[in-house]
Amino acid sequence: MKTVEVRHPLVAHKLGLLRDAATGPALFRQVVGEIATLLAYEATADLALGTRRIDTWAGPLDVGRCDQDAITLVPILRAGLGFLPGVQVLLPSAPVSVIGLRRDEETLQPQAYYQRLYRDIAGRTALLIDPMLATGGSAIAAIDTLKAAGCARVKAIFLVSAPEGLRALEAAHPDTEVWTAAIDDRLNDHGYILPGLGDAGDRIFGTPA
Ligand code: PRP
Ligand code: URA
Questions:
Q1: Which partner for 200 in 5, 79, 110, 111 could form a disulfide, CB atoms 3.0-4.6 Å apart?
Q2: Which of 29, 103, 124, 203 does the annotation list as catalytic?
């Protein structure tokens, strides 16, 4: 499975802000958005580039035009919503499909509770958006859904990934392409990433457990 750990100094700096337990929801959301933009920039490096003709002050010119119609952005609710605006900075016209999954904290299995995929999703590249890849269960369930709907290709961006989640994702969907700001050490006994960020959804939405 193609897996890119983005080692840009700005990403490392911003991730350090997120790892700081003293960082509250407002700054956390802002920085999550900034890293989302940086990861999306990396993940879209091979975006199809066409041309369109414009009139410039010096006459007609063919200029680059990215085809956002070939993509759908797919945040996994809830925490993926915090990641979405940073991706939309770069892809403002890409249609959004959402998949609601909540991890059962006892079994660590994802429970599906909502889904609204863009009607014209078949054949598109899905850009899956979630801050955390822990056991991998949520991402695998989401990609099962996207492939069943006919997505031609799945790229995924995660803030922090656990090695266990990457292995599980590779076993289930080896054709997925992953960009992540960090591959951390391991999961703890409750399925949380170490050192990780804690509960990303709770920190984004200001809902401490
Ligand atoms: C978090 C996170 C992922 C999932 C990762 O969501 O945003 O979706 O856990 O865990 P996994 O890889 O073990 O499946 P959570 O289920 O806590 O829901 P939330 O986004 O509503 O907070
Ligand atoms: N979900 C989170 O938000 N954080 C983790 O470390 C694992 C799952």
A1: 79
A2: 103
